[in-house]
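Long-time lurker. I teach an intro course on protein structure, and each term I like to show students one example going from raw sequence to a predicted 3D structure in token notation. This year I'd like something fresh instead of my usual example. Would anyone be willing to generate the tokens for the chain below so I can use it in lecture? Attribution to the forum is fine with me.
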Amino acid sequence: MSAPSVERHIEIGARRIGQRCPPFIVAEMSGNHNQSLDRALAIVEAAARAGAHALKIQTYTADTMTLDLEEGAFFLSDPNNPWRGKSLYQLYQEAHTPWEWHRPIFDRCRHLGMVGFSSPFDATAVNFLETLEVPCYKIASFENTDIPLIRKVASTGKPLIISTGMATEAELAETVEAARSAGCKDLILLKCTSTYPASPDNTNIVTIPDLQSRFGCLAGLSDHTLGVGVAVASVAMGAVLIEKHFTLRRADGGVDSGFSLEPEEMRSLVLETEKAWRSLGSVRYGPTDAEKPSMVFRRSLYVVKNLKAGDIFTAESVRAIRPGYGLAPKHLDTVLGRRARRDVRRGEPLSWDLVE
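-- Reply from a regular --
Happy to contribute to a lecture. Here you go:
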């Protein structure tokens, strides 16, 4: 598959996403609503106050995700799993967002000027989300090899965001090809490490520009690390969209609370990623307009003792000091040994008209 040229930007709702725009910040609610619609709406409001540009939920039921079994592979027993001690069915019952909550959540997002969208996990979820006129879709890492789901979502013609956790290069090529052949024109791939939490050492954000060039699409980060450092660094790698899990307070608990940002941290993420993006600028040498007033604090050649006309400039009478109104220090060897054209006072900047 030959990669098309990279899109300069895409539109999601009224928001523009691309290299020439500040990073698009997505607050992922996931199951942090703790099965309370009031809390879910409070999370939407807190995300808006923190400056997030979008809020994402997940659309599934326990029955569309797995079987109601509590044995073997259906039970989470790994001591390193943050959800150990539960069956898959129990986890998804606890974490799912009731479908009747979707409209009030999206309505609140629109009212607050945020984009509201979701990750569907099967075709029924896509059909349902289409009735709500969502502006885009997100495919979770664990579904990025579900080609029928990819094709179903892509056939809506709406922008598609895909997390790349665990996927090999060959798998991603198949996924991207399926999406594009089914009608996806606007695609963002997110570098993602599917551990909860993820460690910075295992995040490999230098993959972001490779995703962009290899697959001819915009790229970003779905970040499960603690804090905002990795997300801010990803901007320098070209990330145009950053997704972080979000909650009101980690102490309140919830299926994803342990690796979710709180409101003040989300605010910091929004501010610091925009600063990082603004700092990228362009390749430039020489003083910027803002730096030009500082040129005076460079060193330059000054006469540091009184001289009479005809006196020889020596290392004792000429030095490179601040401020910067004299000749550049590189001319010192040329000046030494030559004579003063006129009387020169201590503290005069050296210029060629003082030198014979």
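Some talking points for your students: The CA atoms of residues 325 and 349 lie 6 Å apart. Confidence is low (pLDDT under 50) at residues 1-5.
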